[in-house]
Design a protein that fits this description.
It is a single chain. The chain is α+β, with helices and mostly antiparallel strands and 71 residues long. 37% of the residues lie in helices and 17% in strands. It is built from two helices and four strands; from the N terminus they run ββαβαβ. The strands form two sheets. The protein has a two-stranded antiparallel ribbon. Helix 1 crosses helix 2.
Length: 71
Amino acid sequence: HNEIEKKTTVGRSKMNLKEVNMVHDLVVYLTTKIHVKSSSITVLAAYQGQQLELRKKLAYFKDKVEVITVD
């Protein structure tokens, strides 16, 4: 994709909403079509701002998807 990262209110961190939505769709696919437990999925985010958005977007899963960052 060619979506540009945006600055967030988390320090100097960045976030890319297109990537957040792509990861969400992938997690939904893995859990519904492949039957992977959401508790066994870990997402590695590039930025803290993106980590926060991913946690919000994935919060409705019964068993939490772990979202960690390298930022």
